[in-house]
Design brief:
InterPro entries: CheY-like_superfamily (IPR011006), HATPase_C_sf (IPR036890), HATPase_dom (IPR003594), His_kinase_dom (IPR005467), HisK_dim/P_dom (IPR003661), HisK_dim/P_sf (IPR036097), Sig_transdc_His_kin-like_C (IPR004358), Sig_transdc_resp-reg_receiver (IPR001789). Its EC number is 2.7.13.3. It is found in: Cell membrane. The structure is a single chain. By secondary structure, the protein is an alpha/beta fold. The chain is built from 15 helices and 17 strands. It is elongated.
């Protein structure tokens, strides 16, 4: 063990674990580390302290040393005393730059580099400052951790606001360019390079936000788990007895930490959903059993507030092929929202089957306060809550509706909301039935240069079409059609290399392709269309039920011609 000793402490009981954590943060601060690195050092010591408490090691010596540009923390204990490194050592290794564990030799050593470019104190100066520290209780340390978490959460919110403003600015610029491209039609070739650059910037900004969410959420989980573990040490068996008020305060700390941990978990799921990493696992779900289970779970909540909760499954198949966990979370969120914002009346879940679109429809209706028209779009923004007296009393994170919509879309469905002040709220979730034996259409070709739009169309057509092919421009679409003519083509009007109008003209001139029905996707609907265009769809805000009905109509029109 090399370096100049700064301070040492002996860990004999649970109280010393708190003192060790606090001392680690103070040493890191005095040595010139950033606030985040101070928390990392303190949390690493907490994790090792937890393992020390669990293993029941006696008389553990903790020594802090300054070794050139590194802070070294060395823990020594009785060799072969039964200590076995587990998750605590693993997590501590992630927080520090390096860790060496030698259970047989009775030693664990961790290192953390000091930040370059900062004025550093000598070992003697650090020792002098540490000697002036005043003792702190376990509750003081927990309060300090809570303050650190609150400050970190506020920084997260501020950064998220800045990122959202940046995204809105880039999105507004993208929409402006798109409108100009639609208006000038064929004269847009020179603008494609600029549009691609703006799209790239938008994707990078979106990716940065997703990485930010995932990274910060993981960083928050570490101290939260430490707080929950420390609270359990305080109130669990073997700890020093606490007074009634102390016990109440510690339990409040634990409850707040668990609430924050649930919020962080939702943030992680939101980040996964936005990056397309949610992977539904479809299985047969009994609709009656699901509805009844939700009623039994949420009934006490409604009963306590004098609000009736009812569920009803009518008509259609008794099962749906879907991810049961995701579907349960979606419906529980919607029903819980209804119960939260309904003071009298009822909250009802109706499950029906739409023969036209072959979708199972879940309708959640309440007689609550409703949502003003100016807030209907914003309720699907993360962390947004409609202002009002009930919202002040009803605690929430503002993630329920965005989270439900993300899960619904991941399962290939849609979620729509309608509401009016004083008239309650209705939320409609549509999911593909998933048990259709015969697809309505065989092969569909989607020709569009927007990869995200192609993915949306593929999701909407899943189960409706036997095969879905994609092409990113007109030339690629023409080559795919020449190899094997599709049963139907969805063609974007504006594409690079060869646009939609030129593609449809080439199809009309080709004897093999002239009878392929085309559904044109564009924002302009008043211009003349080639004869093989059976329908025109708006590109923005396209809904699954509208798309399926349009495709079915185009195919029926083709049958009538034949």
């Amino acid at each position: 063990m090399t370096g100049e000793e700064l301070i040492r402490i002996r860990v004999l009981d649970d109280q010393d674990v708190f003192a060790m954590r606090r001392l680690g943060r103070e040493v890191a601060e005095t040595a010139g580390m950033t606030a985040q690195d101070q928390i990392r050092v303190a949390t690493a010591l907490s994790e090792l302290g937890r393992e020390i408490a669990i293993e029941g090691l006696d008389d553990v010596a903790v020594v802090f040393l300054l070794d050139q540009d590194e802070l070294v923390v060395s823990l020594t204990f009785t060799a072969d005393g039964g200590f076995r490194p587990t998750t605590g050592v693993t997590l501590a290794g992630r927080l520090m730059d390096s860790i060496e564990a030698d259970p047989a030799g009775g030693r664990v050593s961790m290192r953390k580099r000091l930040p370059p470019g900062r004025v550093r104190l000598s070992a003697a100066e650090i020792r002098a400052r540490l000697d002036r520290l005043t003792p702190a209780t376990a509750l003081d340390e927990l309060r300090q951790q809570n303050r650190e978490l609150a400050e970190t959460l506020e920084e997260v919110r501020q950064l998220n606001t800045e990122l959202e403003e940046t995204n809105q600015g880039v999105l507004a610029l993208y929409n402006q360019l798109s409108a100009e491209l639609e208006e000038t039609n064929r004269g847009v070739v020179a603008l494609y390079a600029e549009l691609d650059e703006k799209s790239r910037q938008l994707r990078e900004a979106s990716d940065a936000r997703k990485r930010f969410w995932a990274t910060v959420s993981h960083e928050l989980r570490t101290p939260l788990n430490s707080i929950i573990g420390l609270v359990r040490l305080l109130v669990g068996p073997g700890g020093d007895p606490l007074g009634a008020e102390q016990l109440h305060q510690v339990q409040l700390i634990g409850s707040s930490a668990e609430t924050l941990l649930a919020l962080v978990s939702e943030l992680l799921d939101m980040a996964k959903a936005e990056s397309g990493r949610l992977d539904p696992q479809p299985a047969a779900v009994d609709l009656v059993e699901l509805a009844e289970r939700l009623r039994m779970t949420l009934h006490p909540t409604g009963e306590a507030g004098g609000v009736a909760l009812s569920v009803r499954v009518t008509g259609g198949p008794p099962e749906i092929l879907a991810d049961e966990v995701m579907l349960t979370r979606v419906l529980r969120n919607l029903l819980a929202n209804g119960l939260k914002f309904t003071e009298e009346g009822e909250v009802r879940l109706d499950v029906t089957y739409d023969e036209t679109t072959r979708e199972v429809v879940f309708t959640v209706t309440d007689t609550g306060i409703g949502i003003p028209a100016e807030h209907l779009d914003r309720v699907f923004e993360e962390f947004y809550q409609v202002p009002g007296p009930i919202q002040v009393r009803a605690r929430g994170t503002g993630l329920g509706l965005p989270y439900a919509r993300r899960l619904t879309e991941a399962m290939g469905g849609t979620l729509r909301l309608s509401s009016a002040p004083g008239r309650g709220t209705t939320v409609v979730v549509r999911l593909p039935h998933g048990h259709d034996a015969v697809p309505v259409v065989g092969r569909v070709l989607v020709a569009d240069d927007d990869a995200e739009f192609r993915e949306d169309v593929r999701r909407m057509l899943t189960g409706f079409a036997a095969r879905i092919d994609e092409a990113s421009d007109g030339l690629a679409a023409l080559e795919a059609m020449a190899a094997a003519p599709p049963d139907l083509a969805l063609v974007d009007l504006l594409m690079p290399r060869m646009d939609g109008a030129a593609l449809m003209q080439r199809m009309a001139d080709d004897e093999r392709l002239r009878d392929v029905p085309v559904v044109m996707v564009t924002a302009a609907t008043s211009q003349h269309h080639p004869p093989n265009v059976r329908a025109v769809l708006p590109k923005h805000g396209l809904r699954r039920d509208v798309l399926l009905e349009t495709v079915r109509h185009a195919l029926e029109h083709e049958d009538d011609r034949g």
